[in-house]
Amino acid sequence: MNNRTLISFDWALKHILRDKANFCILEGFLSELLQEDITIIDLLESESNQNHDEEKYNRVDMLVKTGKGERILIEVQNDPEIDYFQRMSYGTAKVISEHLKLGEAYGEIKRVISVNVVYFNLGSGKDYIYRGITSFEGLHHRDLLELSESQQEAFERGRISDFFPEYYLIKLRNFHDVTRDRLDEWIYFLRNSEIRPEFQARGLAEAQQRLQVLKMSPQELATYQGFIKARRIAAGVSEGQYFQGGFDARQELLPLIQKAEADKQKAEADKQKAIEHLQTAMSRLIDSGMPETQARQLLGL
What we know:
- Helices cover 46% and strands 12% of the residues.
- It has 301 residues and is of the alpha/beta class.
- The protein has two domains: 9-215, no CATH class; 216-301.
- It is elongated.
């Protein structure tokens, strides 16, 4: 390990960044991602960020509350999951329902931001950072529905999308270690567990100081190395099952596809024979002296 090798982000999220003294690291990451100053007030409990034994290596969640009262759900996922988008939707729905107190008006619902860091190929896009928001487009005029002035004043929101969950999806496999801005510096760290000396992004200086692998005790280092090894094995097995599952499905469907293609070819051949028979019959009728129009009507052409 070189002197710049740092603890992986998922391990830090589970064991180190939950300490309030280290909130500054997460605040830096979220501030660069959301392009606004984020202050974390507290770490919240939620069903979505419990530590379950079966999720020991492949998934890490954290739910934080910001100075504005917003909830930010941070998820790190290593193993391929074909239904990950559905899980994102479920996670934000649970956060909203769990933190709306009984009797509170719907106007008290705070914005939920879902930040997802995935280490596998998800979807078919080329970018490495995607943002998803909710908007309403007119079916006829193609205009976007906006808030009225009274709604903007009442709720201190500028857009309808501010009432709905906002999603960020970071696909680390699509990042090719080219840093163009301070957010890219964070993406580089998430992908490589390394911070270059020239990086200036908020929170990275603290991460460089507090997430050093070489500062671990022998016992902590052994536990961490076991975690990394188990994560790699689990990810390899899951990815193999993921692609094997797709292969098995194709193998099961192959006979059906082949039968459908054979049926299609037979239908085309039968159709061509029928056309030839009709053409022959019409030629014979015309040769016998029947007008062509009458022959077509007789044959149903």
